[in-house]
Amino acid sequence: MINPIQPALFLDRDGVINKEVHYLSKIKDFVFISGVFETCRMFQKAGFSLIVITNQSGIARGYYTDADFHTLNRWMLDRFNDAGISLTDVLYCPHHPKAVIPEYRTACACRKPQPGMLLEARDRHGINLAASIMVGDKLSDIQAGRQAGVGKLVLVRSGYDITLDDARQAHHVAENLGQTDSFYKWFIEDPTIPTP
Ligand SMILES: [Mg+2]
Ligand SMILES: [Zn+2]
To answer: Prior bond to 7 cis, omega within 30?
Structure first.
């Protein structure tokens, strides 16, 4: 792959797209954060691929199954489609080093803060990571983005509590992904973000 130009908006799922619920696995508990569709449409229109990058250790811990994850994921993709948004991919890590389910018990390279899923997304879709943005609600999202060489790292306050130290490691902190104006302003006013 030579100099890919395709940028991506990488999104953590829980606490970014939907309200944080511990080990969320049921459609009835999935609540979209308001304004998420508008922001995603804006980046889609600007030429970004939209890719979800999510740790799902609830699978390793036996709280829900891989099939449960996919049922919820298909439902989420349908809701995005209804809103005119096509997600390029959803990458998830089902592992945990102390998994109850033996097949998922591994210190893998994909669980954030490891960068494995971002690198995999780059290889699958020819993404230019330096021209891309990672949005998360935890320091581990930001660390994964940094390790992968993602150009812009954004923390949102809509999920886990963010400390001052966490905030210092991000390029931008927003209340939530639905703050379309904040994202747009930041995006268009920062000349270091290459336009696709
Ligand atoms: Mg999260
Ligand atoms: Zn993993």
So the answer is: no
Four-point Cα dihedral 128, 73, 77, 162, nearest 10 = -60
Interval between CA 174 and ligand 2 midpoint (Å): 28
- Tens digit of pLDDT per residue, the chain (196 long)? 556 889 999 999 999 999 999 999 999 999 999 999 999 999 999 899 999 999 999 999 999 999 999 999 999 999 999 999 999 999 999 999 999 999 999 999 999 999 999 999 999 999 999 999 999 999 999 999 999 999 999 999 999 999 999 999 999 999 999 987 777 777 766 655 544 4
What predicted TM-score, i.e. pTM, was given to this entire model? 0.94
Ranges of each domain in the chain: 8-189
Cα(86) to ligand 2 centroid in Å equals 25
Q: Into which CATH architecture does domain 8-189 fall?
A: 3-Layer(aba) Sandwich (3.40)
Tell me the ligand closest to 142's alpha carbon.
1
Contact 96, 57 (CB under 8 A): yes
Residues classed as catalytic: 12, 14
